[in-house]
Structures are given as C-alpha cells and as structure tokens.
Amino acid sequence: MISKLPNVGTTIFTVMSALAAEHKAINLSQGFPDFDCDDTLKEVVNAAMQQGHNQYAPMPGIMPLREAIAKKIYNSYAQTINPDTEITITPGGTYAIFTAIATCIQPGDEVIIFEPAYDSYIPNVLVNGGVPVLIPLTFPEYRINWELVRSKITSRTRMIMLNTPHNPTGSILTEADIRELEQLVAAHNLLVLSDEVYEHLVYDGGQHHSILKYPNLFKNSFVTFSFGKVFHVTGWKMGYCIAPAHLMKEYRKVHQYLCFSVNTPMQYGLAKFLETPEHYLSLPAFYQEKRDYFLQLMADTKFTPLPCYGSYFQLMRYDRISDEGDKDLTIRITKEFGVASIPVSAFYQDGQDDHVIRFCFAKKKATLEQAAERLRKV
Ligand code: GLN
C-alpha cells in the first residue's frame, strides 16, 4: 500500500508521555491536567445516564447543549449564533479541525499554516490532498508577518489556519492581526479555520479575539472549540465546531459519515454545567495563578521564560544550560532529572530548532513544585 502520510511518525505527545511513564518522570509534556474536573460535572453526567440518556444523540448534537453554547457565545462575544444551523458537537477539538478540512479542501488546494504548528494540522491537510503552505511566525515573538503571508498567496490558496491562544507558544492574535486578516480574506475570498480550544485561557487582562466576533470573517470561517481543554476533561474527547449555515451544512455531510454523533450523556451533562457562567468565567484567573506560580518556581532555574499570553503552555529557552538540540535535551531531562517536556522543533515540518521547549502548567501546585525542584538541578 502507498502511504498517504509517508513522512509522519508517532505524535510527539504520545512519544513524550510514554517516555515520561517509562522513566517515572513528572509529565509536563502532553497538554492535560493532573487534577480532576469539577464534581458537579461528574454528577450531571451520571444523572443523565440514570435518566436514560444513553442512546444516539441527534447527528449535530443535542439541542440543549447547542443552545447552551449559543448562550455562552452571546455572553462572551456578544454574537448571536444559530444553534440549529451553525453549531455541531464533535468528539474533541482535533476531530472538529479535521472535519473542517475534509469538508472544504479539494486536491491541490493550498492551506496556509503558521509554524510552529499544532502537530495534526499538516497531516490533516495532506491526507485530504491539500498542499500545506508553511509560514514561520517571527522569533522569538511568535507573531504573524502579514507581509510574508501576502507574498505566499496564489490562485490556489483556499484556506488560512489560525490558532489563538496559540499552542505551543502561548501567543494570541491582536486586533491589528484581525484587521490584516479581514483584508486578506476579503481580497482573496479565503476560508478561515480558527482553532480556539484555549479561548478562556488568556492572561493579564488580555482579550481573546475570537473569529466569532467579526461577522465579515465569520461568514467564511470554521471555528473549533474543546470542552476537554477548558473543563479539565481531555479524556472525554468533547468539542464543537461553529460555522455559518452554508458551511455547516457541508460540514455535517462529512461529520455524519465520520462518527455520526457524539456520546449522549456527556452532552446532557455539559449542557447543564454551562448553565452556570462562573464555570467558564473563572478559568482565566484559575490558570493565570498556575502560570504565575510556575514562573515564580522556575525563576531560580537556568531556564529563561518567553512571554505566555494564553493557553496552558509555558515556553522556556535553555541557552544558559546547553547548546544541544531541543529533542536531545527534552529526552535527557526526562531520563536524568525526571521531568518531561516537549521540544518546540516538533512543531516545525523541517525540525527548525530555536532551542526552546514547552512545559504544560495545567498541574497541581505540588506537581509544579516537584518539577521545579528537579529542574533547578539541570
Ligand atoms: N493538545 C495536547 C498538547 O498540545 C495534546 C493532545 C494530543 O495528545 N493529541 O499537548
């Protein structure tokens, strides 16, 4: 058989989590919390099961959950989204992204992807016959060079992929970025795929500029979200996609034959949980405290933090430690010091290595303390 992804190996998250397990290291690599979700969330899901919500959900998701999401969007971004035609519940954010690409990318279509890029984007485009057009973010600010973007537009450019807050760098799009994007999308009739799974994890009073807030962008966009990331339940694989009705109609044609529908009791539970806005309004402060605590603990190590405006990832430079490659360093620190992290070169197709590694701070205080204690010895 001819491989559709000849150059793809095992995802770095699986590799580093396995290495962490093998060496009994503290796992700050793959992005997931080491603390449990809110008890209320478990109770409402259990209640839904007891009430007999155990058969197929409707293909786009149960209406109470779609209505709760529309309400949350109205509260967060002052935009009215139609729960009937513009929201589809998905098994996680990664699936939501894949399905958007599968919906609209034809063989030969070019898709603009900024690097470092979350590791599923390029394979998702390739498997659908698209052509990834890779554009590096500036270093070390990790911002979009719009001049460079304009120079990469061709008659085949179909879509531009965004991720804000950004994994792995923690950068966020600004109003100025949005203005540039608006011009570009209008001038070349592009589609936008905006991965906003960390929408509530924005710090220091910063604002999340969701594509949902800009009607002239939204009319060409798929915007993807994750309950796993924001409600500390990554193992549930629950997310959703929002798109205008004409795009969502096509999206659902693909979705119905990929997984048909998503598990029912979790949907009822999440609908109930979203009735309390505090459950998502409390998130920025909750995670900012963790980021600040981690930075404070790391202050007397030889790692140098880069700014983290959002997400639950903290990048660190290590030029005061060694000049080895970032992959070698992360493996060595896992084996010798017992803390796993992610080399940022894994987010570049050509392995560009700026000697930066990523730590996930979605962890209990005690975990962060123990990790920093070990990292002080590096
Ligand atoms: N999004 C998570 C991360 O960046 C990983 C999810 C996964 O392993 N697929 O670490």
Automatic annotation (TrEMBL):
Mind listing the UniProt keywords for this protein, alphabetically? Answer: Aminotransferase, Pyridoxal phosphate, Transferase
Q: Name the Pfam families for this protein.
A: Aminotran_1_2 (PF00155)
* Residue ranges occupied by any Aminotransferase class I/classII large domain in the UniProt entry: 25-375
Q: Which domain of life is it from?
A: Bacteria
Q: Which InterPro entries match?
A: Aminotransferase_I/II_large, Kynurenine-oxoglutarate_AT, PyrdxlP-dep_Trfase, PyrdxlP-dep_Trfase_major, PyrdxlP-dep_Trfase_small
Kindly list the GO CC terms recorded for this protein: cytoplasm
Indicate the transmembrane segments per the record: none
CDD domains according to UniProt:
AAT_like
A single Gene Ontology MF term assigned here is: kynurenine-oxoglutarate transaminase activity
What range does the record give for the signal peptide? none
Required cofactors, per record?
Answer: pyridoxal 5'-phosphate
Q: Which PANTHER family match?
A: FI04487P
Q: Which family does it belong to?
A: Belongs to the class-I pyridoxal-phosphate-dependent aminotransferase family.
Q: Which NCBIfam families match?
A: PRK09082.1, PRK12414.1
Q: What is this protein called?
A: 2-keto-4-methylthiobutyrate aminotransferase apoenzyme
